[in-house]
Design brief:
This protein has 530 residues and is mostly helical. It is built from 25 helices and no strands. It is 65% helix and 0% strand. The longest helix has 62 residues.
Length: 530
């Protein structure tokens, strides 16, 4: 009688133990899931912060915001570096603020200052460990609101109890006209900060208005001229931008940003030589800004100063070997100088990492260099990768067509060259090679049409007219053939020697007008018009 009771009790104990174990398992699983979820949210927040910082950087780069980006303490802790007794360029209202750290803006030749009270960087203080602090210039207003100094309270912003958005800041700023801001008791550095905020958020006209109001009040303020010049640049008012940034360079001779801005304005105004000089100064002031150096190299190449450009690009790559654009540019310089082996050496020296993605610029440079070295299969492979990555690459399709044409892959060449023309119908050379590929396929009529289009687009191409000479003659169009040959010889006298050696023409009778022209020469008055 006791055995069933014992079995029942045993079962109950086992059941209780199983329940306890299951409970612990569920508890541990819950903890694990919670940890994973929290960890995921933390990672997501970190990614969002990283993305936010990158977006801010991108905005600043696109708008060309050239103010300092080093960040720093709130304005209440910034000092004036002006000589004793000199007035801060922030104006009398800002001189009551206690200051403890030098301001890199202030001071300069002949006592010229540039911005005494506050760092007007678009990301000033961004790294401050304050979870409520918003990003960008709104954060700068947030810093002002937290200052213990009475003159920084209620400036543009009402008493703040929470985070400030950019829209909040803009709404408050728009309540005041720039000309009335000084009379309203708003400190100068705050008004300059308003101009920077408008600049960052894309309200360029207001940015320029506020910046010029600042220059009207304090004509020796370099930061105000810099901000105004950047705004004019974004508005594509080139001469005004050049004038304003020239003033900024005079007031801020030791900072690269005004010279960089001046260079970009000169590029917009099609003044490359002035742009080169400004970029040179900017690179001397900040030799580690490789982007400035890269833009200088590009202008030097266009100006024919290839040796100086080569040295700059080599220096850039020595400092940062991952710069694909500079590497492709350097390789192209070597290739155009008739040194395809050196071009390939530059390309082969690029860093190889497991996660490295193919770069269209490098593939194009490799394809062209291999094409010049007659490594046709390697050229075709690199160029095929390039057009797969960028189907709208005119250069990729064009050089791919040439690489296939040289390998007598006429059908593939036609397909590639037609794609090149589809992306750029004004490229005469693509029409010319397409005509040659079609002629190789025996489609003479189509070939002539393509070559005539090439001749129309490039009136100085002797090669196009030389090929047309042969095709017209093959089609028994003697008058057109002779006219095309006369044009070719007028453009390039060596075409006559080439024709005399070309066995194609020897198949025609000696009294053929084209052959007679080849044997006797053009005479004193050859036809020169296409």
């Amino acid at each position: 009688m006791n055995q069933p009771q014992e079995e029942t009790a045993y079962r109950r104990v086992n059941l209780l133990g199983s329940l306890m174990i299951s409970g612990w398992v569920i508890f541990l699983l819950t903890l694990a899931i919670a940890f994973i979820v929290l960890h995921g949210r933390l990672r997501q927040q970190q990614r969002q912060m990283a993305q936010l910082n990158q977006e801010l950087k991108d905005i600043n780069d696109k708008l060309g915001v050239l103010a300092r980006t080093s960040g720093g303490p709130a304005p209440a802790t910034r000092p004036s570096a002006l000589p004793p007794g000199a007035q801060s360029v922030a104006g009398p209202a800002a001189t009551t603020t206690p200051q403890t750290q030098p301001d890199a803006n202030a001071g300069g030749p002949n006592g010229k200052g540039s911005g005494g009270g506050y760092d007007v960087s678009p990301v000033a203080g961004l790294l401050k460990p304050d979870p409520d602090r918003p990003a960008g210039l709104a954060g700068a207003f947030y810093d002002l609101s937290k200052s213990s100094e009475p003159d920084t309270k209620n400036v543009f912003m009402p008493t703040i109890t929470g985070p400030i958005t950019v829209d909040d800041a803009l709404a408050e700023i728009r309540k005041v006209e720039p000309g009335a801001a000084a009379k309203a008791g708003i400190p100068f550095d705050r008004r300059l900060l308003a101009a920077q905020l408008f600049l960052q958020t894309g309200d360029i006209e207001n940015a320029h208005k506020w910046a010029r109001a600042a220059t009207d009040e304090q004509a020796n303020n370099g930061t105000a001229w810099l901000t105004a010049g950047v705004a004019s640049h974004v508005l594509k008012q080139w001469q005004q931008s050049i004038d304003e940034l020239t003033r900024a360079t005079a007031l801020l001779p030791d900072r690269p940003e005004p010279f960089k801005g001046l260079a970009e304005a000169c590029v917009g105004a099609a003044r490359p030589k002035q742009a080169i000089e400004a970029y040179r100064t900017a690179t001397k002031l900040n030799p580690h800004d490789l982007e400035i150096a890269s833009r200088l190299a590009d202008l030097l190449i266009r100006d024919g100063k290839l040796d100086e450009a080569t040295k700059i690009l080599q220096s850039n790559l020595a400092e940062d070997g991952t710069r694909a654009g500079d590497r492709a540019q350097l390789a192209e310089l070597f290739r155009q100088s008739g040194k395809p082996a050196e071009a390939l050496a530059v390309l082969n020296a690029r860093p190889q990492t497991a996660d490295a993605r193919p770069d269209v610029r490098l593939l194009l440079a490799e394809g062209r260099a291999r094409l010049d070295s007659d490594e046709l299969a390697g050229a075709e492979n690199a160029l095929e990768q390039a057009v797969n990555l960028s189907p709208i690459s005119t250069d990729g399709w064009h050089y791919l067509g040439i690489s296939r044409l040289k390998q007598r892959k006429n059908a593939g060449a036609i397909q590639a060259l037609e794609m090149a023309i589809a992306t750029d119908s004004e490229r005469a050379e693509s029409w010319q090679y397409l005509g040659i590929a079609l002629a190789n396929q025996g489609e003479i009529g189509k070939a002539i049409e393509r070559l005539e289009e090439a001749a129309r687009l490039d009136a100085k191409s002797a090669q196009t007219r030389y090929v047309l000479t042969m095709l017209y003659l093959k089609e028994s169009r003697g008058d057109k053939s002779l006219a095309a040959l006369r044009q070719a010889v007028a453009l390039d006298a060596t075409c006559l020697d080439k024709a005399r050696k070309d066995v194609f023409f020897k198949q025609f009778p000696e009294d053929n007008p084209v052959r007679k022209f080849i044997e006797q020469g053009p005479g004193p008055n050859p036809t020169t018009q296409p």
